[in-house]
């Protein structure tokens, strides 16, 4: 099993939610949690139907809750109609939130702008009318390649309003990655910005879009809509490119929402798998929004007076469910942050919490670990120097949080009074799956504890049989749930084989993670991916993708990529490379390693750069020619090989690959 390991289920410290927190919580106490679980167990469809009626506004009510006829292509609320943007915006105009701040935009340079629900609604309607004026309509796919901005959120909501399916591509992906996604999605338009601002630096966006479209195969794209963020110098192609301010100029501030079927694809989001190219994870409208809204209440205990801040980027699923959709669906006030945690100093997060009186803060373990390190180096950026008294709940997402980081977050950031929700979920699950409920579940550092009510997670062995608590196995979900992935865009077959493998009976959702439950509490601890997917700083990457990028370089004959445990980033990328020329050493190896790292950045994006590259005359292979990654993982860690290597064709190669270039 690869991946980061956590403390494991033997951790014994337990932190119960405070009585004060529990008293006001949406799910108050374990009895309330157990009652919801019992309701789901007794009448699964009735449970979800009740919640979908209570938490969403339907233009046409649904009569059928779950359709399993074409399993595993499950359908939820299929004959109901709704509009996601109506639920996120118009609803707030009607229920007294019109003048409430929807977004506090905290710019890279520290400038803050408040946008009310009324203003956001107007922005989205004009944007949506502008898209319609360009002929973009229900079912069309629109790529959004933008940095963190009000306009980025508005672009997503505008697509939802007219029934266009968006696909947000993280602004750190390369032109080639962007091109692949444009082609796979068959996008008719790209929404971007001139440049993005991060850590005081200007980084290109529009220029990368131009490059992507120039790579060819993108004839479906008719419009490129550009938000002016920096005013930087960019090229404009007449007839294709259009400024956002010109698109919306003169458009009406009202836009009748397009009422779509609950199953209408709201978005496609590309994510890495263990093989092949990234998968376009397709999400529906109704079930997805239900879960985004409901988990805001259950997991984050969101209240009207909260100031909520999720530090993720809209390019990842966290930024979809817990920035663009969940918070707006429940009428929350949220901070949208353009910058990075270390600019202008590594106390930026805490300074921003104090500045906007943030009460709910949601971030990734990598960020926490790097800020712990930063405050060891420079005590001025330690959280104790900032007024964090507004905080009442903390969240963690994207990777296992090690108990040390958990304790620091709990004591130094949360002042021992804030529950921490360690939320386990995935791009494919649409929203939280396993997490403590802040007013109910006693917390154990490093454990995501128990599944949310209605989420039927289990741990099984390779034949799909349940394993007893205390024994590790494969994490699965035994029943469909509303916000689950619907299919892989353009590839229903891959959807079936990736997530509902026959070996497990074809009916269980395979998460791709290993897990173990504590013998006494039944709490889940995620032990890391069981496939060839890496998690670097909470970013998901396929080893195959990086290998393909490496072998695309004319110098490279063969490459194998593995993950190596890393104190800050969880895992780091280590690549073993065989060149077509003789194995380089010394300065030559250093130079070539640098060249290949930059090559990968250009092929995929800087986040996929191997931290380490080692050169060999060959790779360790079995006599049948299979690369033994298991051994490479041991070598990457710098450990010596104790395993039996008698099946190896070329054991001598292991010596060579111990060396870092
Ligand atoms: C993978 C999913 C969750 C949204 C952002 C990442 C790992 C995620 C946790 C957690 C342990 C976690 C898993 C999962 N992961 N959250 N709380 N504890 N591991 O979404 O890019 O689809 O990655 O992230 O390995 O499979 P993603």
Largest sheet: 7 strands, mixed
| Tally of contiguous helical segments | 19
- What's the CATH C level of one domain? Alpha Beta
Helix content: 25-40%
Regions with pLDDT < 50 over 5+ consecutive residues? 1-7
Category by helix and strand content? alpha/beta
CA radius of gyration: 24 Å
* Strand count: 30
Bound molecules: 5'-O-[(S)-butoxy(hydroxy)phosphoryl]adenosine
Q: Sum up the overall morphology in one term.
A: globular
Q: Determine the N-to-C terminus distance.
A: 27 Å
Relevant CATH superfamily of one domain: ANL, C-terminal domain
Taking strands numbered 1, 2, ... along the chain, how are they ordered across the largest sheet?
A: 5-4-17-16-18-19-20
- CATH fold type of one domain: GMP Synthetase, Chain A, domain 3
Oligomer: single chain
Q: Architecture of one domain, CATH level 2?
A: 2-Layer Sandwich
The residue-averaged pLDDT reads 96
The proportion of strand residues reads 15-25%
Report on the architecture of this protein:
By secondary structure, the protein is an alpha/beta fold. It has a domain at 537-657: 2-Layer Sandwich (GMP Synthetase, Chain A, domain 3), CATH 3.30.300.30. It is 31% helix and 21% strand. It contains 19 helices and 30 strands. The strands form nine sheets. Strands 5-4-17-16-18-19-20 form a seven-stranded mixed sheet, sandwiched between helices. A hairpin with a 5-residue loop joins strand 4 (101-106) and strand 5 (112-116). Helix 2 (30-42) crosses helix 3 (44-55), helix 4 (84-94) crosses helix 6 and helix 5 packs across helix 6 (150-162). The longest helix is centred in the last third of the chain and has 18 residues, at 586-603. The chain starts with 18 loop residues before the first helix and ends with a helix. Mean pLDDT is 96; it is low at 1-7. It binds 5'-O-[(S)-butoxy(hydroxy)phosphoryl]adenosine. 5'-O-[(S)-butoxy(hydroxy)phosphoryl]adenosine is lined by residues 271, 316-318, 397-400, 422-427, 448, 511-513, 526, 529, 535, 540.
